[in-house]
Amino acid sequence: MNSRPAARIHWIDWPALALFVALAAIVLLQFLSRYVLNDSVAWTEEIARYLLIGVAYAGSTTALRKGEHIFLEVIYRRVSLASIKPLAIMVDLVSVVFHAVLTLLAVWLSIEADRRMISVDLPKSIVYWFVAAALFSTTVVSVWRLIQRACLSSREILSEIDKSAGNEDAV
Amino acid sequence: MMILLLVLVLLFALILSGAPVYVALGLSSLAYFLSEGIAGVAAAHTMINGLDSFTLSAIPFFILAGHLMNAAGFTERIFTFARALVGWAPGGLGHVNIGASVVFAGMSGAAVADAGGLGAVEIKAMRDAGYERGFSVGVTAASSTIGPIIPPSLPLIVYGVVAEVSIGKLFAAGLLPGLIMAIALMVMVHVTAVRRGFRREAAFSTRFALRAAKSAILPLLTPIIIVGGIVCGVFTPTEAAIAAVAFTTLVGCVLFRTLRWRAILDAMVATVETTASVLMIVASAALFAWVLTANQVADGLASGLLAMTSDKTAVLLLIMAIVFVVGFFMETIAAITILAPLVLPVAMAVGIDPVHLGVVFVLNLMIGLLTPPVGMVLYVLAKVSRTPFEECVRATLPFLVPLFGVLLLLVFVPEIALYLPGLLFED
Known about the structure:
The complex is a heterodimer of chains A (171) and B (427).
Chain A: H1 14-35, H2 44-65, H3 74-78, H4 81-112, H5 125-150, H6 154-164
Helix pairs in contact in A: 1-2, 2-5, 4-5, 4-6
Chain B: H1 2-16, H2 21-36, H3 40-49, H4 58-71, H5 74-86, H6 92-105, H7 111-116, H8 118-128, H9 133-144, H10 154-163, H11 167-196, H12 206-231, H13 237-255, H14 261-294, H15 297-308, H16 312-329, H17 332-349, H18 354-368, H19 376-384, H20 389-396, H21 400-412, H22 415-424
Helix pairs in contact in B: 1-2, 2-14, 3-14, 4-13, 4-14, 5-6, 5-12, 6-8, 6-9, 6-11, 8-9, 9-19, 9-20, 10-17, 10-18, 11-18, 11-21, 11-22, 12-13, 14-17, 15-17, 16-17, 16-18, 17-18, 18-21, 19-20
Protein backbone atom coordinates (compact mmCIF):
# COMPACT_ATOMS: atom_id res chain seq x y z
CA MET A 1 0.00 0.00 0.00
CA ASN A 2 1.23 3.45 -0.72
CA SER A 3 2.09 5.61 2.19
CA ARG A 4 0.71 8.87 0.92
CA PRO A 5 1.19 12.35 2.27
CA ALA A 6 -1.60 13.46 4.57
CA ALA A 7 -4.58 13.95 2.29
CA ARG A 8 -7.06 16.73 2.76
CA ILE A 9 -10.50 15.45 3.59
CA HIS A 10 -13.33 17.22 1.84
CA TRP A 11 -16.76 17.29 3.48
CA ILE A 12 -18.09 15.19 0.62
CA ASP A 13 -15.83 12.32 1.82
CA TRP A 14 -17.34 12.11 5.30
CA PRO A 15 -20.48 10.00 4.58
CA ALA A 16 -18.37 7.20 3.11
CA LEU A 17 -15.93 7.39 6.03
CA ALA A 18 -18.77 7.31 8.55
CA LEU A 19 -20.34 4.27 6.88
CA PHE A 20 -16.95 2.59 6.81
CA VAL A 21 -16.45 3.12 10.53
CA ALA A 22 -19.98 1.79 11.14
CA LEU A 23 -19.19 -1.25 8.99
CA ALA A 24 -15.99 -1.88 10.95
CA ALA A 25 -17.88 -1.55 14.24
CA ILE A 26 -20.59 -3.98 13.16
CA VAL A 27 -18.18 -6.57 11.81
CA LEU A 28 -16.17 -6.28 15.02
CA LEU A 29 -19.37 -6.68 17.03
CA GLN A 30 -20.26 -9.81 15.09
CA PHE A 31 -16.74 -11.16 15.59
CA LEU A 32 -16.82 -10.53 19.34
CA SER A 33 -20.36 -11.82 19.78
CA ARG A 34 -19.42 -15.05 18.04
CA TYR A 35 -16.22 -15.65 20.00
CA VAL A 36 -16.86 -14.05 23.34
CA LEU A 37 -20.60 -14.38 23.83
CA ASN A 38 -20.66 -17.55 21.74
CA ASP A 39 -23.86 -16.37 20.12
CA SER A 40 -23.84 -14.17 17.06
CA VAL A 41 -26.12 -11.17 16.85
CA ALA A 42 -28.64 -11.88 14.10
CA TRP A 43 -28.88 -8.60 12.26
CA THR A 44 -25.17 -7.80 11.89
CA GLU A 45 -24.54 -9.70 8.68
CA GLU A 46 -27.43 -8.18 6.74
CA ILE A 47 -26.71 -4.63 7.91
CA ALA A 48 -23.00 -5.10 7.12
CA ARG A 49 -23.93 -6.02 3.54
CA TYR A 50 -25.98 -2.86 3.12
CA LEU A 51 -23.25 -0.73 4.68
CA LEU A 52 -20.72 -2.20 2.26
CA ILE A 53 -22.94 -1.15 -0.66
CA GLY A 54 -23.08 2.33 0.88
CA VAL A 55 -19.30 2.52 1.33
CA ALA A 56 -18.75 1.52 -2.30
CA TYR A 57 -21.14 4.06 -3.81
CA ALA A 58 -20.36 6.93 -1.44
CA GLY A 59 -16.62 6.18 -1.62
CA SER A 60 -16.89 6.25 -5.40
CA THR A 61 -17.60 9.98 -5.12
CA THR A 62 -14.30 10.49 -3.27
CA ALA A 63 -12.42 8.25 -5.68
CA LEU A 64 -13.76 10.22 -8.65
CA ARG A 65 -13.00 13.54 -6.95
CA LYS A 66 -9.36 12.52 -6.60
CA GLY A 67 -9.13 10.74 -9.96
CA GLU A 68 -8.42 7.47 -8.13
CA HIS A 69 -10.71 5.22 -10.13
CA ILE A 70 -8.80 2.63 -12.10
CA PHE A 71 -8.36 3.63 -15.74
CA LEU A 72 -6.03 2.83 -18.58
CA GLU A 73 -3.57 5.68 -18.90
CA VAL A 74 -1.46 4.26 -21.70
CA ILE A 75 -3.28 6.30 -24.37
CA TYR A 76 -2.31 9.59 -22.74
CA ARG A 77 1.33 8.67 -23.21
CA ARG A 78 0.90 7.66 -26.84
CA VAL A 79 -1.15 10.47 -28.40
CA SER A 80 0.14 13.95 -29.26
CA LEU A 81 -0.03 16.59 -26.58
CA ALA A 82 -2.71 18.51 -28.46
CA SER A 83 -5.17 15.58 -28.40
CA ILE A 84 -4.91 15.04 -24.63
CA LYS A 85 -7.37 17.73 -23.66
CA PRO A 86 -10.15 16.73 -26.11
CA LEU A 87 -9.70 13.12 -24.98
CA ALA A 88 -9.93 14.01 -21.29
CA ILE A 89 -13.00 16.17 -21.90
CA MET A 90 -14.68 13.34 -23.79
CA VAL A 91 -13.96 10.92 -20.96
CA ASP A 92 -15.38 13.39 -18.42
CA LEU A 93 -18.51 13.87 -20.54
CA VAL A 94 -19.00 10.10 -20.73
CA SER A 95 -18.65 9.97 -16.96
CA VAL A 96 -21.24 12.73 -16.44
CA VAL A 97 -23.75 10.96 -18.73
CA PHE A 98 -23.18 7.59 -17.07
CA HIS A 99 -23.63 8.84 -13.52
CA ALA A 100 -26.63 11.00 -14.42
CA VAL A 101 -28.42 8.07 -16.08
CA LEU A 102 -27.52 5.74 -13.23
CA THR A 103 -28.82 8.26 -10.67
CA LEU A 104 -32.19 8.36 -12.43
CA LEU A 105 -32.33 4.57 -12.62
CA ALA A 106 -31.50 4.29 -8.91
CA VAL A 107 -34.27 6.78 -8.03
CA TRP A 108 -36.67 4.73 -10.15
CA LEU A 109 -35.56 1.56 -8.37
CA SER A 110 -36.00 3.23 -4.95
CA ILE A 111 -39.57 4.21 -5.79
CA GLU A 112 -40.46 0.78 -7.11
CA ALA A 113 -38.76 -1.28 -4.39
CA ASP A 114 -41.36 -2.65 -1.96
CA ARG A 115 -39.37 -5.33 -0.16
CA ARG A 116 -38.42 -4.99 3.49
CA MET A 117 -35.16 -5.95 5.15
CA ILE A 118 -35.06 -9.47 6.55
CA SER A 119 -33.67 -9.11 10.06
CA VAL A 120 -34.75 -5.53 10.76
CA ASP A 121 -38.19 -4.09 10.09
CA LEU A 122 -37.15 -1.35 7.67
CA PRO A 123 -37.89 -0.88 3.97
CA LYS A 124 -35.02 -1.99 1.71
CA SER A 125 -35.57 1.14 -0.34
CA ILE A 126 -33.48 3.00 2.27
CA VAL A 127 -30.42 1.35 0.74
CA TYR A 128 -31.50 2.29 -2.78
CA TRP A 129 -32.29 5.88 -1.82
CA PHE A 130 -28.86 6.20 -0.24
CA VAL A 131 -27.20 4.83 -3.38
CA ALA A 132 -29.25 7.25 -5.49
CA ALA A 133 -28.06 10.15 -3.34
CA ALA A 134 -24.45 8.94 -3.57
CA LEU A 135 -24.75 8.60 -7.34
CA PHE A 136 -26.21 12.10 -7.50
CA SER A 137 -23.21 13.52 -5.65
CA THR A 138 -20.90 11.53 -7.95
CA THR A 139 -22.71 13.13 -10.89
CA VAL A 140 -22.13 16.58 -9.38
CA VAL A 141 -18.46 15.77 -8.84
CA SER A 142 -18.11 14.53 -12.41
CA VAL A 143 -19.61 17.80 -13.73
CA TRP A 144 -17.20 19.70 -11.47
CA ARG A 145 -14.30 17.65 -12.81
CA LEU A 146 -15.39 18.31 -16.38
CA ILE A 147 -15.41 22.06 -15.77
CA GLN A 148 -12.12 21.93 -13.89
CA ARG A 149 -10.30 19.99 -16.60
CA ALA A 150 -11.84 22.17 -19.32
CA CYS A 151 -9.94 25.08 -17.76
CA LEU A 152 -6.59 23.25 -17.83
CA SER A 153 -4.14 22.93 -20.70
CA SER A 154 -3.20 19.55 -22.20
CA ARG A 155 0.13 19.68 -20.41
CA GLU A 156 -1.49 20.34 -17.04
CA ILE A 157 -3.94 17.47 -17.57
CA LEU A 158 -1.06 15.14 -18.40
CA SER A 159 0.91 16.11 -15.31
CA GLU A 160 -2.21 15.56 -13.19
CA ILE A 161 -2.60 12.06 -14.67
CA ASP A 162 1.08 11.43 -13.99
CA LYS A 163 0.60 12.43 -10.39
CA SER A 164 -2.37 10.16 -9.79
CA ALA A 165 -0.79 7.24 -11.69
CA GLY A 166 0.43 4.58 -9.38
CA ASN A 167 -1.56 6.00 -6.53
CA GLU A 168 -4.46 3.71 -7.26
CA ASP A 169 -4.15 0.67 -5.07
CA ALA A 170 -5.53 -1.63 -7.69
CA VAL A 171 -5.64 -5.31 -6.99
CA MET B 1 -25.56 -10.79 -31.69
CA MET B 2 -24.84 -7.71 -33.77
CA ILE B 3 -25.78 -5.51 -30.83
CA LEU B 4 -23.52 -7.49 -28.52
CA LEU B 5 -20.65 -6.91 -30.91
CA LEU B 6 -21.31 -3.18 -30.89
CA VAL B 7 -21.45 -3.23 -27.08
CA LEU B 8 -18.02 -4.91 -27.02
CA VAL B 9 -16.60 -2.35 -29.45
CA LEU B 10 -18.00 0.46 -27.28
CA LEU B 11 -16.53 -1.16 -24.15
CA PHE B 12 -13.03 -1.39 -25.57
CA ALA B 13 -13.20 2.05 -27.16
CA LEU B 14 -14.14 3.53 -23.77
CA ILE B 15 -11.48 1.59 -21.87
CA LEU B 16 -8.77 2.51 -24.37
CA SER B 17 -9.73 6.18 -24.35
CA GLY B 18 -9.02 6.25 -20.63
CA ALA B 19 -12.50 6.23 -19.11
CA PRO B 20 -12.60 4.67 -15.63
CA VAL B 21 -12.98 0.91 -16.13
CA TYR B 22 -16.27 0.75 -14.21
CA VAL B 23 -17.75 3.61 -16.26
CA ALA B 24 -16.77 1.83 -19.49
CA LEU B 25 -18.33 -1.44 -18.31
CA GLY B 26 -21.46 0.23 -16.95
CA LEU B 27 -22.14 2.55 -19.85
CA SER B 28 -21.69 -0.10 -22.54
CA SER B 29 -24.05 -2.40 -20.62
CA LEU B 30 -26.60 0.42 -20.26
CA ALA B 31 -26.36 0.98 -24.01
CA TYR B 32 -27.37 -2.65 -24.45
CA PHE B 33 -30.37 -2.25 -22.13
CA LEU B 34 -31.44 0.83 -24.04
CA SER B 35 -31.13 -0.66 -27.52
CA GLU B 36 -32.95 -3.84 -26.50
CA GLY B 37 -35.69 -1.89 -24.75
CA ILE B 38 -35.08 -3.60 -21.38
CA ALA B 39 -36.22 -1.61 -18.34
CA GLY B 40 -33.19 0.19 -16.98
CA VAL B 41 -34.39 -0.30 -13.42
CA ALA B 42 -33.18 -3.90 -13.73
CA ALA B 43 -29.72 -2.54 -14.54
CA ALA B 44 -29.68 -0.45 -11.36
CA HIS B 45 -30.89 -3.47 -9.40
CA THR B 46 -28.10 -5.67 -10.79
CA MET B 47 -25.42 -3.07 -10.17
CA ILE B 48 -26.43 -2.39 -6.57
CA ASN B 49 -27.17 -5.95 -5.53
CA GLY B 50 -24.01 -7.15 -7.26
CA LEU B 51 -22.29 -5.97 -4.06
CA ASP B 52 -24.79 -7.55 -1.68
CA SER B 53 -22.40 -10.09 -0.20
CA PHE B 54 -21.05 -10.42 3.33
CA THR B 55 -17.90 -12.10 2.01
CA LEU B 56 -17.05 -8.99 -0.02
CA SER B 57 -16.87 -7.00 3.20
CA ALA B 58 -13.54 -8.74 3.90
CA ILE B 59 -12.06 -6.61 1.10
CA PRO B 60 -11.98 -3.20 2.82
CA PHE B 61 -10.53 -4.66 6.01
CA PHE B 62 -7.71 -6.46 4.26
CA ILE B 63 -6.95 -3.20 2.45
CA LEU B 64 -7.08 -1.25 5.73
CA ALA B 65 -4.83 -3.79 7.45
CA GLY B 66 -2.27 -3.34 4.67
CA HIS B 67 -2.32 0.45 4.98
CA LEU B 68 -2.01 0.26 8.75
CA MET B 69 0.90 -2.19 8.56
CA ASN B 70 2.77 0.23 6.30
CA ALA B 71 1.99 3.18 8.54
CA ALA B 72 3.02 1.26 11.67
CA GLY B 73 6.36 0.27 10.14
CA PHE B 74 5.64 -3.48 9.88
CA THR B 75 6.92 -3.41 6.30
CA GLU B 76 10.46 -2.25 7.17
CA ARG B 77 10.75 -4.68 10.09
CA ILE B 78 9.78 -7.61 7.87
CA PHE B 79 12.21 -6.50 5.20
CA THR B 80 15.05 -6.24 7.72
CA PHE B 81 14.22 -9.68 9.07
CA ALA B 82 14.24 -11.19 5.57
CA ARG B 83 17.56 -9.45 4.96
CA ALA B 84 19.11 -10.98 8.04
CA LEU B 85 17.84 -14.39 7.05
CA VAL B 86 18.68 -14.69 3.33
CA GLY B 87 20.70 -11.56 2.55
CA TRP B 88 24.04 -13.41 2.57
CA ALA B 89 23.29 -15.54 -0.53
CA PRO B 90 24.51 -14.53 -4.03
CA GLY B 91 22.05 -11.95 -5.35
CA GLY B 92 21.15 -11.53 -1.68
CA LEU B 93 18.73 -8.65 -1.85
CA GLY B 94 16.88 -10.37 -4.70
CA HIS B 95 16.14 -13.26 -2.35
CA VAL B 96 15.29 -10.85 0.45
CA ASN B 97 12.87 -9.14 -1.90
CA ILE B 98 11.08 -12.41 -2.65
CA GLY B 99 11.11 -13.59 0.96
CA ALA B 100 9.66 -10.32 2.22
CA SER B 101 6.99 -10.51 -0.47
CA VAL B 102 6.00 -13.98 0.73
CA VAL B 103 5.59 -12.78 4.31
CA PHE B 104 3.76 -9.66 3.17
CA ALA B 105 1.57 -11.82 0.91
CA GLY B 106 0.30 -13.45 4.09
CA MET B 107 -0.92 -10.07 5.29
CA SER B 108 -2.07 -8.31 2.16
CA GLY B 109 -4.28 -9.43 -0.66
CA ALA B 110 -3.24 -7.25 -3.55
CA ALA B 111 -0.28 -7.26 -5.95
CA VAL B 112 -0.32 -3.65 -7.04
CA ALA B 113 -0.53 -2.44 -3.47
CA ASP B 114 2.42 -4.66 -2.55
CA ALA B 115 4.41 -3.13 -5.39
CA GLY B 116 3.57 0.36 -4.14
CA GLY B 117 4.30 -0.22 -0.44
CA LEU B 118 6.82 -3.00 0.09
CA GLY B 119 8.12 -2.50 -3.48
CA ALA B 120 9.24 1.02 -2.70
CA VAL B 121 11.19 -0.22 0.36
CA GLU B 122 12.73 -3.07 -1.64
CA ILE B 123 13.80 -0.97 -4.60
CA LYS B 124 15.36 1.66 -2.37
CA ALA B 125 17.35 -0.95 -0.44
CA MET B 126 18.54 -2.58 -3.66
CA ARG B 127 19.55 0.78 -5.15
CA ASP B 128 21.51 1.69 -2.00
CA ALA B 129 23.30 -1.65 -2.19
CA GLY B 130 24.34 -0.93 -5.78
CA TYR B 131 22.10 -3.35 -7.67
CA GLU B 132 21.27 -2.37 -11.23
CA ARG B 133 17.89 -0.72 -11.60
CA GLY B 134 16.45 -3.19 -14.11
CA PHE B 135 17.18 -6.22 -11.93
CA SER B 136 15.59 -4.59 -8.87
CA VAL B 137 12.45 -3.64 -10.78
CA GLY B 138 12.15 -7.08 -12.36
CA VAL B 139 12.42 -8.97 -9.06
CA THR B 140 10.08 -6.57 -7.29
CA ALA B 141 7.46 -6.74 -10.04
CA ALA B 142 7.56 -10.53 -10.25
CA SER B 143 7.54 -11.09 -6.47
CA SER B 144 4.58 -8.74 -5.96
CA THR B 145 2.38 -11.19 -7.89
CA ILE B 146 2.81 -13.70 -5.05
CA GLY B 147 0.60 -11.44 -2.91
CA PRO B 148 -2.79 -12.46 -4.31
CA ILE B 149 -1.87 -16.16 -4.58
CA ILE B 150 -0.87 -16.67 -0.94
CA PRO B 151 -3.90 -15.92 1.27
CA PRO B 152 -5.44 -13.49 1.95
CA SER B 153 -6.28 -12.53 -1.61
CA LEU B 154 -8.72 -9.97 -2.92
CA PRO B 155 -8.97 -11.53 -6.40
CA LEU B 156 -9.67 -14.96 -4.86
CA ILE B 157 -12.41 -13.42 -2.68
CA VAL B 158 -14.05 -11.93 -5.76
CA TYR B 159 -13.67 -15.23 -7.63
CA GLY B 160 -15.15 -17.13 -4.68
CA VAL B 161 -18.16 -14.82 -4.56
CA VAL B 162 -18.76 -14.99 -8.32
CA ALA B 163 -18.16 -18.74 -8.60
CA GLU B 164 -19.85 -19.55 -5.28
CA VAL B 165 -16.81 -21.44 -4.02
CA SER B 166 -15.67 -21.50 -0.36
CA ILE B 167 -13.12 -18.74 0.23
CA GLY B 168 -11.43 -20.92 2.88
CA LYS B 169 -10.81 -23.64 0.31
CA LEU B 170 -9.54 -21.14 -2.26
CA PHE B 171 -7.17 -19.61 0.29
CA ALA B 172 -5.87 -23.01 1.33
CA ALA B 173 -5.40 -23.86 -2.35
CA GLY B 174 -3.25 -20.77 -2.96
CA LEU B 175 -0.69 -21.44 -0.23
CA LEU B 176 1.49 -24.11 -1.89
CA PRO B 177 1.39 -22.53 -5.39
CA GLY B 178 2.46 -19.20 -3.84
CA LEU B 179 5.44 -20.83 -2.12
CA ILE B 180 6.38 -22.62 -5.36
CA MET B 181 6.28 -19.27 -7.17
CA ALA B 182 8.70 -17.90 -4.58
CA ILE B 183 11.06 -20.86 -5.05
CA ALA B 184 10.92 -20.53 -8.84
CA LEU B 185 11.74 -16.82 -8.61
CA MET B 186 14.58 -17.50 -6.16
CA VAL B 187 16.07 -20.02 -8.58
CA MET B 188 15.87 -17.34 -11.27
CA VAL B 189 17.60 -14.79 -9.00
CA HIS B 190 20.29 -17.32 -8.08
CA VAL B 191 21.01 -18.16 -11.73
CA THR B 192 21.16 -14.49 -12.70
CA ALA B 193 23.37 -13.63 -9.73
CA VAL B 194 25.85 -16.39 -10.42
CA ARG B 195 25.95 -15.73 -14.17
CA ARG B 196 26.42 -12.00 -13.80
CA GLY B 197 28.76 -12.37 -10.82
CA PHE B 198 26.82 -10.26 -8.30
CA ARG B 199 28.94 -9.67 -5.24
CA ARG B 200 27.84 -11.10 -1.93
CA GLU B 201 26.78 -8.93 0.93
CA ALA B 202 28.02 -9.35 4.47
CA ALA B 203 28.07 -12.92 5.76
CA PHE B 204 25.27 -14.33 7.90
CA SER B 205 25.33 -12.89 11.40
CA THR B 206 23.46 -14.65 14.18
CA ARG B 207 23.38 -11.49 16.25
CA PHE B 208 21.89 -9.40 13.47
CA ALA B 209 19.39 -12.19 12.70
CA LEU B 210 18.28 -12.45 16.32
CA ARG B 211 17.89 -8.72 16.67
CA ALA B 212 15.89 -8.50 13.43
CA ALA B 213 13.75 -11.46 14.50
CA LYS B 214 12.99 -9.82 17.81
CA SER B 215 11.89 -6.61 16.16
CA ALA B 216 9.83 -8.47 13.56
CA ILE B 217 8.17 -11.02 15.82
CA LEU B 218 4.86 -9.18 16.19
CA PRO B 219 4.55 -8.27 12.48
CA LEU B 220 5.39 -11.90 11.68
CA LEU B 221 2.49 -13.02 13.85
CA THR B 222 0.05 -11.25 11.53
CA PRO B 223 0.29 -13.65 8.57
CA ILE B 224 0.14 -16.56 11.02
CA ILE B 225 -3.09 -15.22 12.53
CA ILE B 226 -4.62 -14.49 9.13
CA VAL B 227 -3.48 -17.45 7.07
CA GLY B 228 -3.61 -19.95 9.91
CA GLY B 229 -6.99 -18.70 11.08
CA ILE B 230 -8.64 -18.87 7.68
CA VAL B 231 -7.03 -22.03 6.39
CA CYS B 232 -7.79 -23.94 9.57
CA GLY B 233 -11.37 -22.70 9.51
CA VAL B 234 -11.20 -20.77 12.80
CA PHE B 235 -11.99 -17.45 11.10
CA THR B 236 -14.14 -16.53 8.16
CA PRO B 237 -12.22 -14.26 5.77
CA THR B 238 -14.08 -11.20 7.05
CA GLU B 239 -13.30 -12.07 10.67
CA ALA B 240 -9.64 -12.65 9.84
CA ALA B 241 -9.52 -9.27 8.12
CA ILE B 242 -11.03 -7.41 11.06
CA ALA B 243 -8.78 -9.35 13.45
CA ALA B 244 -5.76 -8.22 11.42
CA VAL B 245 -6.95 -4.61 11.60
CA ALA B 246 -7.46 -4.84 15.36
CA PHE B 247 -4.10 -6.54 15.91
CA THR B 248 -2.16 -4.05 13.78
CA THR B 249 -3.85 -1.08 15.42
CA LEU B 250 -3.12 -2.43 18.87
CA VAL B 251 0.52 -3.21 18.16
CA GLY B 252 1.04 0.02 16.21
CA CYS B 253 -0.56 2.28 18.80
CA VAL B 254 0.39 0.65 22.08
CA LEU B 255 3.58 -1.37 21.57
CA PHE B 256 5.46 0.23 18.66
CA ARG B 257 3.93 3.67 19.21
CA THR B 258 4.32 4.29 15.48
CA LEU B 259 0.63 4.73 14.65
CA ARG B 260 -0.81 8.18 15.18
CA TRP B 261 -4.45 9.16 14.95
CA ARG B 262 -3.78 11.13 11.77
CA ALA B 263 -2.11 8.12 10.14
CA ILE B 264 -5.12 5.95 11.00
CA LEU B 265 -7.48 8.52 9.50
CA ASP B 266 -5.36 8.72 6.33
CA ALA B 267 -5.32 4.92 6.11
CA MET B 268 -9.12 4.90 6.38
CA VAL B 269 -9.55 7.51 3.65
CA ALA B 270 -7.20 5.58 1.36
CA THR B 271 -9.09 2.37 2.19
CA VAL B 272 -12.46 3.88 1.32
CA GLU B 273 -11.10 5.05 -2.04
CA THR B 274 -9.51 1.73 -2.91
CA THR B 275 -12.56 -0.21 -1.76
CA ALA B 276 -14.82 1.96 -3.87
CA SER B 277 -12.63 1.67 -6.95
CA VAL B 278 -12.52 -2.13 -6.60
CA LEU B 279 -16.18 -2.64 -5.71
CA MET B 280 -17.51 -0.29 -8.39
CA ILE B 281 -15.72 -2.48 -10.92
CA VAL B 282 -17.31 -5.57 -9.35
CA ALA B 283 -20.73 -3.87 -9.57
CA SER B 284 -20.56 -2.81 -13.19
CA ALA B 285 -18.78 -6.00 -14.24
CA ALA B 286 -21.75 -7.85 -12.73
CA LEU B 287 -24.00 -5.80 -15.00
CA PHE B 288 -21.82 -6.57 -18.00
CA ALA B 289 -21.82 -10.26 -17.09
CA TRP B 290 -25.64 -10.06 -17.08
CA VAL B 291 -25.56 -8.78 -20.68
CA LEU B 292 -23.27 -11.63 -21.70
CA THR B 293 -25.52 -14.17 -19.96
CA ALA B 294 -28.59 -12.76 -21.71
CA ASN B 295 -26.82 -13.44 -24.99
CA GLN B 296 -25.92 -17.00 -23.96
CA VAL B 297 -22.24 -16.30 -24.46
CA ALA B 298 -21.33 -18.99 -21.92
CA ASP B 299 -23.24 -21.63 -23.89
CA GLY B 300 -21.57 -20.52 -27.11
CA LEU B 301 -18.16 -20.61 -25.49
CA ALA B 302 -18.83 -24.02 -23.95
CA SER B 303 -19.95 -25.62 -27.21
CA GLY B 304 -17.06 -23.95 -29.05
CA LEU B 305 -14.47 -25.26 -26.59
CA LEU B 306 -16.04 -28.71 -26.29
CA ALA B 307 -16.13 -29.03 -30.10
CA MET B 308 -12.34 -28.76 -30.02
CA THR B 309 -11.64 -31.14 -27.17
CA SER B 310 -13.22 -32.65 -24.10
CA ASP B 311 -9.94 -33.46 -22.39
CA LYS B 312 -9.80 -31.84 -18.96
CA THR B 313 -6.26 -30.48 -19.23
CA ALA B 314 -6.71 -29.33 -22.82
CA VAL B 315 -9.88 -27.43 -21.92
CA LEU B 316 -8.08 -25.82 -18.97
CA LEU B 317 -5.23 -24.80 -21.28
CA LEU B 318 -7.72 -23.25 -23.71
CA ILE B 319 -9.44 -21.41 -20.86
CA MET B 320 -6.05 -20.16 -19.70
CA ALA B 321 -5.31 -18.91 -23.22
CA ILE B 322 -8.58 -16.92 -23.14
CA VAL B 323 -7.87 -15.56 -19.65
CA PHE B 324 -4.36 -14.60 -20.70
CA VAL B 325 -5.56 -12.67 -23.76
CA VAL B 326 -8.28 -10.92 -21.75
CA GLY B 327 -5.83 -10.24 -18.91
CA PHE B 328 -3.68 -8.41 -21.42
CA PHE B 329 -6.36 -5.79 -21.87
CA MET B 330 -8.50 -5.93 -18.78
CA GLU B 331 -8.02 -5.10 -15.15
CA THR B 332 -7.95 -8.12 -12.75
CA ILE B 333 -11.22 -7.71 -10.86
CA ALA B 334 -13.24 -6.92 -13.98
CA ALA B 335 -11.71 -9.91 -15.78
CA ILE B 336 -12.67 -12.25 -12.91
CA THR B 337 -16.23 -10.96 -12.54
CA ILE B 338 -16.88 -11.18 -16.28
CA LEU B 339 -14.93 -14.29 -17.27
CA ALA B 340 -15.51 -16.61 -14.31
CA PRO B 341 -19.25 -17.10 -14.98
CA LEU B 342 -18.45 -17.67 -18.67
CA VAL B 343 -15.83 -20.37 -18.25
CA LEU B 344 -17.15 -22.11 -15.12
CA PRO B 345 -19.92 -24.13 -16.81
CA VAL B 346 -17.59 -25.66 -19.37
CA ALA B 347 -14.90 -26.22 -16.74
CA MET B 348 -17.35 -28.04 -14.48
CA ALA B 349 -18.67 -30.03 -17.45
CA VAL B 350 -15.25 -31.59 -18.08
CA GLY B 351 -14.59 -32.08 -14.36
CA ILE B 352 -12.18 -29.25 -13.55
CA ASP B 353 -12.35 -28.42 -9.84
CA PRO B 354 -13.58 -24.81 -9.44
CA VAL B 355 -11.06 -24.31 -6.61
CA HIS B 356 -8.22 -25.38 -8.90
CA LEU B 357 -9.60 -23.16 -11.67
CA GLY B 358 -9.68 -20.17 -9.30
CA VAL B 359 -5.99 -20.41 -8.41
CA VAL B 360 -4.73 -20.81 -11.99
CA PHE B 361 -7.17 -18.11 -13.10
CA VAL B 362 -5.78 -15.58 -10.62
CA LEU B 363 -2.14 -16.55 -11.25
CA ASN B 364 -2.74 -16.07 -14.96
CA LEU B 365 -4.21 -12.61 -14.39
CA MET B 366 -1.27 -11.73 -12.13
CA ILE B 367 1.06 -12.37 -15.05
CA GLY B 368 -1.17 -9.96 -16.98
CA LEU B 369 -0.30 -7.31 -14.37
CA LEU B 370 3.30 -7.54 -15.58
CA THR B 371 2.54 -7.11 -19.28
CA PRO B 372 1.68 -3.87 -21.06
CA PRO B 373 -0.66 -2.13 -21.81
CA VAL B 374 -2.65 -2.77 -18.60
CA GLY B 375 0.33 -3.87 -16.49
CA MET B 376 -0.64 -1.96 -13.35
CA VAL B 377 2.33 -3.24 -11.35
CA LEU B 378 4.69 -1.90 -14.00
CA TYR B 379 3.15 1.57 -13.85
CA VAL B 380 3.46 1.68 -10.08
CA LEU B 381 7.06 0.46 -10.13
CA ALA B 382 8.00 2.85 -12.92
CA LYS B 383 6.80 5.58 -10.60
CA VAL B 384 8.34 4.45 -7.31
CA SER B 385 11.69 3.59 -8.93
CA ARG B 386 11.70 6.59 -11.32
CA THR B 387 12.44 4.24 -14.21
CA PRO B 388 11.00 4.70 -17.71
CA PHE B 389 8.00 2.44 -18.30
CA GLU B 390 9.63 0.73 -21.31
CA GLU B 391 12.67 -0.17 -19.22
CA CYS B 392 10.41 -1.69 -16.54
CA VAL B 393 8.73 -3.82 -19.21
CA ARG B 394 12.06 -5.06 -20.54
CA ALA B 395 13.47 -5.71 -17.04
CA THR B 396 10.43 -7.74 -15.98
CA LEU B 397 10.29 -9.88 -19.13
CA PRO B 398 12.84 -12.56 -18.02
CA PHE B 399 10.95 -13.05 -14.75
CA LEU B 400 7.84 -14.03 -16.66
CA VAL B 401 9.56 -17.32 -17.52
CA PRO B 402 9.48 -18.82 -13.98
CA LEU B 403 5.94 -17.49 -13.46
CA PHE B 404 4.71 -19.13 -16.67
CA GLY B 405 6.53 -22.27 -15.59
CA VAL B 406 4.57 -22.36 -12.32
CA LEU B 407 1.31 -21.63 -14.17
CA LEU B 408 1.83 -24.59 -16.50
CA LEU B 409 2.89 -26.81 -13.60
CA LEU B 410 -0.36 -25.89 -11.83
CA VAL B 411 -2.43 -26.61 -14.93
CA PHE B 412 -0.94 -30.08 -15.33
CA VAL B 413 -0.71 -30.97 -11.62
CA PRO B 414 -3.98 -29.86 -9.96
CA GLU B 415 -2.92 -31.64 -6.75
CA ILE B 416 -0.52 -28.79 -5.93
CA ALA B 417 -3.53 -26.56 -5.41
CA LEU B 418 -6.00 -29.17 -4.21
CA TYR B 419 -3.84 -31.05 -1.69
CA LEU B 420 -4.23 -28.61 1.22
CA PRO B 421 -7.97 -27.94 0.81
CA GLY B 422 -8.52 -31.69 0.58
CA LEU B 423 -6.58 -32.16 3.80
CA LEU B 424 -8.30 -29.38 5.74
CA PHE B 425 -11.89 -29.47 4.54
CA GLU B 426 -14.13 -32.48 4.92
CA ASP B 427 -16.40 -32.57 1.86
